[in-house]
Design goal:
With 175 residues, this protein is α/β, with parallel strands linked by helices. The chain contains four helices and six strands, in the order αβαββαβββα.
């Protein structure tokens, strides 16, 4: 697989902590991050998808629990929060699927609330592999906290995805 080879190449070129390989991305990049979380859980410590597509977990067989921090706006007009038929799962259902795989509590707890953003955490997961979904009510297809293009919808300033993802990654090295 290309990404496995790329990571191996980078490890050969630079000093990389193998317990701290993380992936994040937005839109199609977020969909790829979910795929990498499934396929490369032996080398990727955690994933951080933003405004991404969430395919079914039926073909997802990670070898260990995968920590996930995700962000999605309810008014995303490119990748709907509520999913798209059989093609894409709703954002909350995908997060709950990761939580189920990770052996987390079935019911999430609200752990963040500011303005239009609510963070729900599925806790008590195997190996500390938390799953957190930040839902941005009225948020568009954008990276929270950034200066995105207005045609993609509202971008919240109530949370900064970059900072939150970095803090999450720092707290979730490979076991």
């Amino acid at each position: 697989m290309f990404f496995r080879d790329l990571i191996s190449y980078l490890e050969g070129q630079w000093s990389i902590d193998p317990k701290r390989i993380y992936v994040t991305g937005m839109s199609n990049g977020a969909q790829m991050m979910n795929h990498l979380g499934c396929e490369l859980s032996d080398i990727i410590a955690a994933i951080g998808p933003v405004s991404g597509g969430y395919p079914s977990l039926h073909s997802c067989n990670p070898v260990r629990p995968m920590p996930v921090v995700a962000f999605h706006g309810t008014a995303d007009n490119l990748i709907p929060y509520e999913g798209q038929g059989q093609i894409l799962l709703p954002a909350r259902e995908r997060a709950a699927g990761w939580a189920s795989h990770n052996g987390c509590d079935h019911t999430p707890m609200v752990t963040f609330q500011k303005g239009q953003v609510t963070g729900e955490t599925w806790g008590n997961c195997r190996d500390g592999a938390d799953v957190i979904l930040y839902t941005i009510v009225g948020g568009g297809h954008s990276w929270p906290g950034s200066d995105m293009l207005p045609q993609l919808g509202i971008t919240t300033k109530d949370i900064n995805a970059t900072d939150v993802i970095w803090d999450f990654f720092a707290a979730h090295p490979m076991p």
